[in-house]
Design the sequence.
């Protein structure tokens, strides 16, 4: 089995790599792992197969052709310019997120026209394909009406993926990841950063800033769940999915207040006291435009699973990032 | 007022041109009319302003820049490779319907970056952005999950139009036209052709073939209504539309049986006898995947209007195409 991960240097890409090295995929060993990103990906430690780490920018002509020419069995396309940057730099967002994705899809098609080739392609989409106003729960038949260029680019990637799959050029599946929580690493300035910061920092004994009301509701899944989604998408029988190849994935809908209650139960009052309230009207306004709850009936029926409580999301972080111990 | 029509040589483009010449737009006279298509458009008869007819293929680099450089106030983008051709020729469909549209949008943005320019852009989308399974009536919040490359390309055009409009690069509005009935001219081989053929041909004293059951339901509006939609979209206050710039338009949901009953009422049993039943399993199957009814609440609230009976649709054809007389 040859697996190509595009966007391998990111947080989810690194966790996916580790899991593939440790456990293979769908009961099979991974013989070849090609890791690609715009910054050099780290070679996987302890991997017994053949590993290739490459830097490449998919929006440059010819790059996708090279990657696809090696005929990987499964391609994970995780690479993207994030929401804030795509909004600030219109050209760059469209170049990387739209042209890069389309070049990849087209390179696969062209490779298959030379001699039969039909890899599995897993595309990480986003709940940013949805724009307010929403119903209380977003159903699987709700329209994609994004309110950001990033969401637009992901929605277009989804449409292309369905059409290329329908025409038989590859076996594509697009998965709309919930917001990943608890994101490991340093606090970042993304508008969504506080959802993780208010848990991760107190668990490590540090202060965190909460810029919104406790009533704010959002849609979450752990990094471990995200890797599980990717592996499930890569091995799922796509006959069962049918022509609508893009799925809103399961997650946990929780308010910030519920996040804090879970932190209290798992780590005590001492941790909760480290959350400092600093209301930020700009962040409040951005967050108000985001989806907060879904009814991801199709993905659930197809076997995708996320956490069912924030206590579990916190415990996953303690196990996977803190060696089982609270700081 | 300078108006640019891209796709001016098609049936709707020609009718739109005639109406603009006869009646102006939004109470204003048209001073300049630029008519563009891949085949030479006909110069408008009796037009007092300045008319330019050009052949151009928007998917060729530089073509859109030239058209947009003249800074038209209103741009009608009607040009497209039709559904059957886009399905048969994947590259051509994406080149014309996706790249051509994107080049146009981007040319407008670049023109505006040089010095402020923000035209009204009316984009004809299609009910082909929807793919089965449907609810009985397709609501305004129903997802775009096309089952053709043409529908995919139109859905992508819609997403780009909303994003470019949101960013303030132009004032865009996308309108999903119902199937146009009664289409004037010769019977054609499009799978949807029979909806018009079974009325137009008998009204002219000729035989027509009906390849599907009378129970088949579909979504219709007259060519006159289509021109009305375009003019309304070009002059509507877009503040009222908000960020979701693509609208399913009103139409008439009718079964083939109801079409035939209307023909009987308007033109008598003699006309109905000219319909020959020749069931065609392939056309039945294609048509079964098409939308048949909508609840276009937003477009109705915004003042778009279509016919409310098939008798009216037939009378429009008799008035506009047959000089008021049945052959």
Sequence:
């Amino acid at each position: 089995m040859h697996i190509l991960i595009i966007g391998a240097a990111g947080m989810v890409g690194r966790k996916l790599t580790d899991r593939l090295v440790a456990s293979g995929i769908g009961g099979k060993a991974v013989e070849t792992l090609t890791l690609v990103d715009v910054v050099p990906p780290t070679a996987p430690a302890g991997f017994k197969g053949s590993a290739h780490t490459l830097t490449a920018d998919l929006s440059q002509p010819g790059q996708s052709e090279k990657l696809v020419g090696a005929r990987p069995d499964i391609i994970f396309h995780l690479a993207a310019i994030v929401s804030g940057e795509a909004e600030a730099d219109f050209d760059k967002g469209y170049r990387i997120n739209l042209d890069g994705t389309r070049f990849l899809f087209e390179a696969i098609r062209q490779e298959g026209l030379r001699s039969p080739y039909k890899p599995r392609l897993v595309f990480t989409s986003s709940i940013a394909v949805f724009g307010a106003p929403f119903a209380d729960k977003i159903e699987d038949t709700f329209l994609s009406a994004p309110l950001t260029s990033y969401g637009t680019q992901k929605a277009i990637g989804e449409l292309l993926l369905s059409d290329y799959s329908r025409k038989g050029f590859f076996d594509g599946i697009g998965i709309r990841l919930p917001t990943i929580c608890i994101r490991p690493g340093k606090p970042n300035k993304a508008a969504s950063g506080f959802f993780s910061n208010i848990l991760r920092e107190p668990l490590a004994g540090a202060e965190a800033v909460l810029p919104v009301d406790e009533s704010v509701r959002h849609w979450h899944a752990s990094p471990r769940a995200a890797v599980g989604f990717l592996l499930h998408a890569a091995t799922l029988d796509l006959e069962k999915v049918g022509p609508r190849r893009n799925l809103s994935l399961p997650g946990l809908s929780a308010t910030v207040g519920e996040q804090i209650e879970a932190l209290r139960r798992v780590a005590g009052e001492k941790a909760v006291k480290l959350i400092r309230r600093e209301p930020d009207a700009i962040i409040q306004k951005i967050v108000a435009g985001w989806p907060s709850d879904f009814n991801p009936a199709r993905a659930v029926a197809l076997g995708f699973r996320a956490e069912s409580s924030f206590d579990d999301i916190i415990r996953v972080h303690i196990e996977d990032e803190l060696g089982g111990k609270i700081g």
Summary: The interface with chain A takes residues 90, 131, 135, 140-147, 149, 152, 155-156, 159-160, 162-163, 166-167, 243-244 of chain B (CB under 8 Å).
